[in-house]
């Protein structure tokens, strides 16, 4: 099994502006795995993960990022 780390970063407000004024990465802990699925732990402090649109990326054990998936945190 290949080790992976999950990173969650805010989606830029404007797709034409590559720099997001609220740019930060939040590393999420992988708590479970099954075929084609990962279970991630989110911070208990909701201030660390406010509602909004985010890009979810997985990094391989070698640090190679996946293509981002857009998701909404309510």
TrEMBL record:
<dbReference type="InterPro" id="IPR014756">
    <property type="entry name" value="Ig_E-set"/>
</dbReference>
<dbReference type="Pfam" id="PF09118">
    <property type="entry name" value="GO-like_E_set"/>
</dbReference>
<protein>
    <submittedName>
        <fullName>Galactose oxidase</fullName>
    </submittedName>
</protein>
<dbReference type="InterPro" id="IPR015202">
    <property type="entry name" value="GO-like_E_set"/>
</dbReference>
<dbReference type="InterPro" id="IPR013783">
    <property type="entry name" value="Ig-like_fold"/>
</dbReference>
<feature type="domain" description="Galactose oxidase-like Early set">
    <location>
        <begin position="22"/>
        <end position="72"/>
    </location>
</feature>
